[in-house]
Amino acid sequence: GAVVSQHPSWVICKSGTSVKIECRSLDFQATTMFWYRQFPKQSLMLMATSNEGSKATYEQGVEKDKFLINHASLTLSTLTVTSAHPEDSSFYICSARGLHTDTQYFGPGTRLTVL
Amino acid sequence: GENVEQHPSTLSVQEGDSAVIKCTYSDSASNYFPWYKQELGKRPQLIIDIRSNVGEKKDQRIAVTLNKTAKHFSLHITETQPEDSAVYFCAATLNNAGNMLTFGGGTRLMVKP
User: Fold this and answer.
1) Interface with chain B: mutation pick from A102, A106, A112, highest number of B CBs within 10 Å
2) Cα B17 to chain center, whole Å?
């Protein structure tokens, strides 16, 4: 149980385009989903927290207009990187947490490369 | 907010030896401390966790200890195997903070056969 999927697993795009990443909880209802960014050989940096049906809460320094997060259902959250630039190239990982539990389960990550 | 420090950043051990990774946290109200293992290019996998009402927890070759007074917790891996080689992250969270995890900087463990 507690499986989280992410799509796509990798994407290469041109500078200026937008990229959407999906995060799904496959066998449980995720009341809260988290989006992280991880640069090579570094730790996971929380970008935002999203609760189903609410606006996402962004961490300091993360532009909400650039990283659009939607959590429209209890099993799906999306992250859209708008007008992507090479410095946005990174490994983006989501995690999901169900109600009445502390445990976060991570998706497999999406490697974004912006040319 | 919470700040989690993790040491060492790299750790090399011989197969069969034990490995210990230590973390400290700043917020005494934190009450949940998971440990994740991440292999290269893959997702972090929860390997063990501990809550603040417990001082120690063990699962086969893996154990975690928590010292609330000193605000530090440690991961212990015994009888290490090459497949234990990975990056390990500790984390801490507050129940009332939306359960957002604050991660340590990670420890790259290398187990030499």
Assistant:
1) A102
2) 18
Q: Is A109 in CB contact (< 8 Å) with chain B?
A: yes
Tokens of A65: 């207009």
A57 at interface of B, judged by CB pairs closer than 8 A: yes
In this predicted model, what pLDDT tens digit does every residue of A2-44 receive, in sequence order? Answer: 899 999 999 999 999 999 999 999 988 888 999 999 998 899 9
Tens of pLDDT, residues B63-82: 999 999 999 999 999 999 99
Spatial contact of B3 and B104, defined as CB atoms under 8 Å apart: no
Query: pLDDT tens for residues A53-98?
Result: 888 999 999 999 999 999 888 999 999 999 999 999 999 999 998 8
Q: Which of residues 5-44 of B touch A (CB under 8 A)?
A: 32, 34, 36, 41-44
CB contact under 8 A, A93 and B43: yes
Token pair for B47: 């390997």
Question: How many other CB atoms are found less than 10 A from the CB of residue A101?
Answer: 14
d(CA A78, CA A55): 12
Tell whether B51 lies on the interface with A, counting CB pairs under 8 A.
yes
Q: What is the CA radius of gyration of chain B?
A: 13
Sequential DSSP letters for A3-48? -EEEE-SEEEE-TT--EEEEEEESSS-EEEEEEEEE-TTS--EEEE
